[in-house]
Amino acid sequence: MENKERYFRALIENNGQLNEIDLGEKLGLEENETREIIVQLLSEHKIEYAENRVCNYSLMKTLKRKNNK
Length: 69
Prior knowledge:
This protein is 59% helix and 16% strand. The protein has helices spanning 2-14, 20-26, 31-43, 61-68; strands at residues 47-52, 55-59. It is globular and about 25 Å long.
């Protein structure tokens, strides 16, 4: 799913500045589609629910370490 990868990259770059729904809207996604993508990313253990400034989701700690290398 192309939108899922775009959203995931945008979430990384966002760094908690926009909430998850606003970030999806910025990418041209509807709220329902954004929520579906979030559910998929959660099930793939790419993100976790954790309040991160305005956004309620952040990268899983293991992914953060891999991205820093």
